[in-house]
Design a protein that fits this description.
Length: about 650
């Protein structure tokens, strides 16, 4: 008993000593080892801020999605079996997956940002095949609920939440979520236990942004561009709608387009926002600026008479009228109405190289506008001190210079705005995470380019282009609109000079003339067949402006001229898979059920039925103004409400 008691006493004494040693002598070192083995730090990225249109409709938002990772050291069964099971679901090559699963270490990404249905299938496979060593981490994924709508403005975000194009790039530092370091528990094998309490801490998103874009106007513009692209087989097209009183961009669209949800499936050429990043010769649309300079300087009056012989020679270069005709004794008003080159050459020579260049630069050409988008070009202008007379002559008709679409519509908007040039902007407000306004973009006056009376005189002359001249196809029924056609040879970007047989057709205008609410520019690049701006760009202008007037509920002009002009684009051929739709003998069609359709899908269905759509919201259709299967007259306008999925 004594011996047993002594042994127990010695054991207890040794245990107490060991505990004391661990606690007081070696405690810190052991605690550090535990932390090193069982505790890890992980950097968490909070969601990006949401991008809204001017009415608060979501254009880009972030949602939580699952990313798949593996612990190769814990993997069971073998990597070959696991790879063979996972590869078809993940859409990955079996060899690539095996290589990832065979790496050393305790953590490797297999695939990031899985769609919900894919992550669900993977989870089912893991459970069914009793796979060990795989897990999910929730990450923030950027989602564009309207697919291709305003894609070139919005841009897209890369895998690591880095803005790569458009507003996502331009405002990346503002709307990007904050990085925060969180403590993550791991098991004895070093595998992260990501479902610890720290993973459920609320994460504040970055600042949100409200754009000046109106998603309904944007949809109207993009739908019209799709029609003209199909009808003319053009290689590209651009359209901008601006409020000339504020400088706000209401719509900005380019074709070809792309879906930012799947940006990797498209080329860099399709990502390009042509409204700001391409330069082109504006052709006759630029004559409005030449006319503004001459009128402002008092060098010409609307009633002054000119003699047109069909051509004019300057420094040995012969410049003809676009029609090849001679108009004889005509007024300056008719020169603008019919876009007569010889008349504008004479007017430009009166203004002179230095003075004309001063006006051109004051209208904003030759430098970037400063809009909140990356990749804006500045254009190309002459050095007035090195210009020959032939250079001045070609510049007077919109050739031998290069501008961006945004520069041109900004300049024409100044004419609509009583001669005041405004800085264009596309960001309306920056919002805090709680929805309060962090900052708002004010109307920024650049300068008074021409007097108000000069602007009004020029607007009246440009109105005659639409009501009586070469821009009749741009007529907007019930409203007074002013505008200018444009047709120019296409520049050869590789070798210089012009591409024979290739043209850019355009039309720019604003209205209603008595109180301009919108200015619109249409640019159609390299159409097949007819290429005059008055023939193919002007009808697009009419279509867009007419729909916007109805959408904005702008009352018709009280003194608008009546017209019988019904020019329109050639009918768009329906896709082969589209079901044939037959109208009844009474001229009515049965209203389809649009529930669950995207904005574009609903528009295509109604378009095939000969019905117009007024979209409200974004996402998928949840309600419509006409009950399904109700007889409705062809040409009727249907209001469809959309909500985010």
């Amino acid at each position: 008993m004594a011996i047993l008691f002594t042994l127990l006493l010695l054991a207890v004494t040794g245990l107490i000593g060991r505990i004391a040693w661990i606690q007081f002598v070696d405690g810190k070192n052991l605690a550090l080892k535990v932390q090193h083995q069982l505790i890890d730090n992980k950097v968490l990225q909070s969601p990006r801020g949401t991008i809204y249109d001017r009415n608060g409709r979501e254009l880009a938002l972030s949602c939580l999605t699952k990313s798949l990772y593996a612990d190769p050291g814990m993997l069971k069964p073998d990597k070959e079996s696991v790879a063979a099971v996972l590869a078809p679901v993940l859409g990955m090559n079996v060899g690539v997956l095996q290589e990832a699963l065979g790496r050393e270490g305790h953590f490797v990404w297999l695939k990031r940002m899985l769609d919900a249905d894919v992550s669900q299938k993977v989870a089912e496979l893991i459970e069914k095949n009793n796979i060990k060593g795989l897990g999910f981490i929730e990450e923030s994924k950027r989602y564009y609920p309207n697919d291709t709508l305003a894609a070139h403005v919005l841009g897209f975000v890369g895998t690591d939440d880095v803005g790569l194009e458009g507003m996502e790039l331009a405002l990346d530092k503002v709307i990007k979520g904050k990085l925060s370091e969180a403590t993550i528990e791991t098991d004895s094998h070093g595998t992260p236990i990501f479902k610890s309490i720290f993973n459920f801490l609320p994460r504040k998103e970055g600042k949100s942004v409200k754009l000046t874009l109106d998603s309904t106007i944007q949809f109207i513009v993009e739908q019209s561009l799709d029609k003209v692209m199909s009808a003319t087989k053009a290689s590209a097209a651009t359209a901008i709608v601006m409020n000339p009183r504020t400088g706000e961009v209401l719509a900005m669209a380019s074709r070809p387009g792309y879906n930012p949800n799947y940006f990797g499936q498209y080329s860099e050429k399709e990502w390009k926002n042509r409204a700001i990043s391409i330069i082109y010769e504006p052709g006759s649309t630029f004559k409005s600026v030449v006319a503004a300079a001459a009128l402002q300087e008092g060098l010409v009056s609307p009633e002054e008479r000119f003699v047109d012989t069909g051509f004019v020679e300057v420094s040995g270069r012969r410049i003809r009228n676009w029609s090849g005709e001679s108009y004889g004794n005509i007024s300056f008003t008719d020169i603008i109405k019919q876009s007569i080159n010889t008349g504008f050459v004479q007017v430009g020579m009166r203004v002179g190289a230095v003075k004309l260049n001063d006006y051109v630069r004051n209208f904003g050409f030759g430098k970037t506008t400063g809009i909140e988008l990356e990749g804006e070009e500045s254009g190309i202008l002459f050095d007035p001190h090195e210009m020959r007379d032939s250079d001045l002559a070609t510049m007077s008709i919109g050739q031998s210079i290069a501008v961006t679409p945004l520069q041109l519509i900004t300049a024409v908007s100044a004419i609509a705005n009583d001669g005041v040039l405004l800085k264009p902007h596309i960001v309306k407000e920056m919002l805090n995470a709680d929805g309060s306004v962090f900052s708002a973009t004010p109307t920024d006056v650049v300068r008074q380019v021409i007097r108000s009376d000069t602007a009004h005189t020029l607007a009246g002359l440009m109105e005659k282009v639409v009501s009586e001249g070469g821009g009749k196809n741009a007529f907007v029924p019930g409203y007074r609109f002013a505008g200018k056609t444009g047709t120019a040879e296409k520049l050869n970007e590789k070798s210089g000079g012009y591409e024979a047989g290739h043209y850019i057709a355009s039309f720019v205008g604003f209205g209603p003339v008595e109180d301009p609410q919108i200015s619109v520019l249409i640019v159609i690049d390299d159409p097949d067949g007819m290429y005059y701006g008055g023939e193919i760009a002007a009808p697009v202008f009419s279509e867009i402006a007419s729909q916007i007037m109805r959408y904005l509920n702008i009352p018709p002009s009280t003194n608008a001229l009546p017209t019988t002009n019904t020019a329109a684009l050639p009918a768009q051929t329906p896709p082969p898979a589209a079901p044939a739709v037959a109208a009844s003998a009474t001229g009515t069609v049965a209203m389809p059920d649009l529930s669950g359709k995207t904005v574009r899908e609903a528009a295509e269905i109604l378009d095939r039925l000969g019905l117009a759509m007024l979209p409200v919201g974004s996402g998928v259709a949840v309600s419509q103004s006409i009950v399904p299967q109700t007889p409705v007259n062809s040409g009727s306008e249907i209001t469809v409400t959309f909500e985010a999925r």
